[in-house]
Write a structure and sequence with these properties.
17% of the residues lie in helices and 36% in strands. The chain is α+β, with helices and mostly antiparallel strands. It has a 15-stranded mixed β-sheet that branches. Helix 3 links the parallel strand 9 and strand 10. 42% of the residues are buried. The model has no long low-confidence stretch (mean pLDDT 96).
Length: 262
């Protein structure tokens, strides 16, 4: 069955003949003895992602609302992912999960962790050469790879698809890269758009918004707690600095249920 998940993700994500989505989250028995359940994440093109911040948070709602697994004694649901163990602390109302806070683990700026071919120990606000010029990016890993571009241009006007496609497939990135463009609105507020591997532009991304907040924090532009405005809503990110985990917080809402035919 697991071998069929990439094909199933492509079929279900198809907007005309499927459900229409950014991909597929699959709940499986945990292999890690510390985890309550295992998550596999597939993009709409069938490629597998190591980690998804929003995906982990929404997966936790699916699992807990259906009692497929239970939180630990501290109240966290421990989820096994390709990026390692992730923990979600749920918020409840009337017996259902209405939101959750995710431990995103410590961000890494080491190019080898993306992986990224680099002659530098870190890639912080450095130019990335493209065919028609260069774009300045900060690169980091949150279990999956990100390249974040800070711009003074309104992100709504930024040519995200054209630039994102070139950045995503840049030869420096062995496994492609997620691309984010952001505006700094205040010390506690960012606005961003996100171009995901295997997907294209997405209305919201937990790891993408976290990457923006972490990059802005590393550049000294924001404080430790930041709201990130995305086309799909606002996510709350906290990161004190190096050596500490980043945290993602946001709402969860079930919008439909259905059965998928063979």
């Amino acid at each position: 069955m697991e071998r069929e998940l990439p094909r199933l993700a492509r079929a279900m994500a198809e907007p005309h003949t499927g459900v229409g989505s950014d991909g597929l989250l699959a709940a499986l028995p945990a292999r890690d003895p510390q985890a309550a359940i295992r998550l596999r994440i597939f993009n709409s093109d069938g490629s597998e992602a190591e980690m998804s911040g929003n995906g982990v948070r929404l997966f936790a709602k699916f699992v807990l609302d259906r009692q497929l697994a239970s939180p630990d004694a501290g109240g966290a649901l421990r989820i096994e992912t390709l990026a390692g163990l992730r923990q979600v602390w749920p918020r409840w109302a009337a017996g259902v999960m209405t939101g959750g806070r995710v431990d995103m683990d410590e961000p890494s700026f080491r190019p080898a962790d993306l992986p990224m071919r680099s002659e530098h120990e870190e890639w912080i606000a450095r130019p990335l050469e493209l065919n028609d010029g260069a774009i300045e990016v900060t690169c980091l890993s949150l279990g999956n790879p990100h390249a974040v571009h800070l711009t003074t241009e309104d992100v709504a006007q930024f040519p995200l698809a054209a630039v994102g496609e070139r950045v995503q497939h840049h030869p420096r990135f062995a496994n492609r890269v997620n691309f984010e463009v952001m505006n700094v609105l205040a010390r506690d507020r960012l606005r961003a758009r996100i171009y995901e591997r295997g997907e294209g532009e997405t209305r919201s991304s937990g790891t993408g918004s976290t990457a923006c907040a972490v990059a802005a924090r590393r550049l000294g532009l924001v404080g430790p707690e930041v709201s990130v405005e995305l086309p799909g809503g606002v996510l709350e990110i906290a990161w004190v600095g190096p050596g500490e985990s980043a945290w993602l917080d946001g709402p969860t809402l079930e919008i439909l249920r259905g059965e998928w035919g063979s």
